[in-house]
Amino acid sequence: MIRANPNYSKIQANYLFAEIAARVKACQAEKPSARLIRLGIGDVTQPLPAACVEALERASAEMGAAETFRGYGPDYGYAFLREAIAKNDFETRGCDISPDEIFVSDGAKCDTGNFQEMFDSSARIAVPDPVYPVYVDSNVMAGRTGAAAKSGRYEGIVYLECNEENGFVPAPPKTPADVAYLCFPNNPTGAVASREQLAAWVEWARTNDALILFDAAYEAFIREEGVPHSIYEIPGAKEVAVEFRSFSKTAGFTGTRCGYCVVPAQCRAFDSAGARIPLQTLWKRRQSTKFNGVAYPVQRAAEAALSAEGRAQCKALVDGYLANAAIVASRLERHGLKCTGAKNSPYVWFDCGMDSWEFFDKVLRNAEVVVTPGVGFGSNGAGFIRISAFNSRENVEEAMDRIEKILG
Ligand code: MLT
Questions:
Q1: How many angstroms does the Cα of residue 71 sit away from the middle of ligand 1?
Q2: CA 74 – ligand 1 centroid, Å
Q3: Rounded distance from Cα 43 to ligand 1 centre (Å)
Q4: Residue 229 lies in a domain
Q5: How far is CA 78 from CA 184, 217, 299, in A?
Q6: By CB count within 10 A, which of 199, 388, 392, 403 is most buried?
Q7: How far is the centre of ligand 1, averaged over its atoms, from the C-alpha of 255 (Å)?
Q8: Closest CA to ligand 1's atom 1
Q9: Nearest-CA residue for atom 4 of ligand 1
């Protein structure tokens, strides 16, 4: 008899964005004339930068000619892309990351979901609450947790409290943990961590033989001077941290699919006798077994996003979303709602003063705007809402006009 993985039945609800999609579909069925504006899932809406489109076209033409056609690419990504990433994303910020420590993938969701395969099943996982659901669900699926309590929290996970008091930036836990997932600029709260806060995390990982999985998918939105863009800006991080990046929000690649993770040569886990195991060796083994790389034209488009022209075009895209986020925050603040995020993030996070799903439904039904209920990211998100700035200026302004009518 084929038995299903019992861990899947521990996952209580639908994936958050699947649940939102189901509610939106039901609303559309009831109100077919509704002109919905989507500020829910963080999905980009603006076209790809021209430099990326040109690179895609050129590379597609190469694939159509016998002399330039390419089959399987290198397992960890083409050298042209890994070199461009090392130079533009790390060298420019004083981080010593070499191309062979960079692993090109189809996005940060897959990498952050897959990386837990490198750990023993007994590894104690620490996650912030609220949290991007992928970090938790992938560990539940792998059997690293017990059942979920009524609060939605799983037995066996160390939850790092994030709230208004700590500015939604958690301190390292006092409870023992082997690996901590951190995301800055944060999804869902938009909070950023200072150099001192990240240094405390690196110190924690070094002292406790632990590991940090650092999701920097929203790094391009940082505008404040002094805020670290990479965990590797912190001395000592290369031994204790893996970093995840994505072209999705930076270059509009949510549908094009390209990201990467950095696994430095000295980054380690330990075997049962306490001997060091390089995580890079394990990750290489995993990727070459289970992944066949990203399409050549897509890797060329990602390379183009890192050219001088592409970087300027990406900056303009991100600036547009940041201006939207500033509009969302200023409109909410008019109603006395205190917002986190918006400054270095496409997300605006606020306490809506009622149950998150109730506010979600109210805004969906009465304003025909889709937002994200904060409770979907964890129990500390109860009563909060996340608004995404990924839309056109016109739609964001109209959505906020409609939401303001509800706020009264
Ligand atoms: C989000 O809305 O949280 C993100 O778009 C989800 C993702 O990037 O997978």
A1: 31
A2: 28
A3: 7
A4: yes
A5: 27, 21, 7
A6: 388
A7: 12
A8: 42
A9: 42
CA of 332 to the centre of ligand 1 (A): 22
Q: pTM of the predicted model, to two decimals?
A: 0.97
Cβ neighbours around 406 below 10 Å, total:
14
Residues 176, 296 within the same domain: yes
Q: In a 3-state reduction of DSSP, which class is residue 148?
A: strand
Amino acid letter for position 344: N
Residue ranges lining ligand 1, Cβ < 6 Å = 41-43, 109, 187
5, part of any domain: no
Q: Among the three residues 258, 274, 306, which one is the final residue of a domain in this structure?
A: 306
Listed in sequence order, the residues at least 6 apart from 261 whose beta carbon sits closer than 8 Å to its beta carbon are 102, 103, 105, 108, 111, 115, 242, 243, 244, 245, 283
Are 19 and 75 in a shared domain?
Answer: no
For residue 269, what is the DSSP state?
E
Q: Are 231 and 212 in contact (CB under 8 A)?
A: yes
CATH of the domain at 373: 3.90.1150.10
Statement: residue 94 has pLDDT above 80: yes
Identify the CATH number of the domain in which residue 160 sits: 3.40.640.10
Q: How far apart are CA 325 and CA 387, in angstroms?
A: 8
Same domain, 300 and 316: no
Ligand 1, closest atom to CA 372?
2
Whether residue 237 is found in the same domain as residue 93: yes
pLDDT, tens digit (0-9, with 9 covering 90-100), for 203-244:
999 999 999 999 999 999 999 999 999 999 999 999 999 999
In which domain, by residue range, is 328 found? 10-47+309-407
pLDDT in tens, 247-261: 999 999 999 999 999
User: Which residue has its alpha carbon closest to ligand 1 atom 6?
Assistant: 42
Ligand 1: atom nearest CA of 41 is 2
| Spacing, Cα 254 to ligand 1 middle (Å) | 9
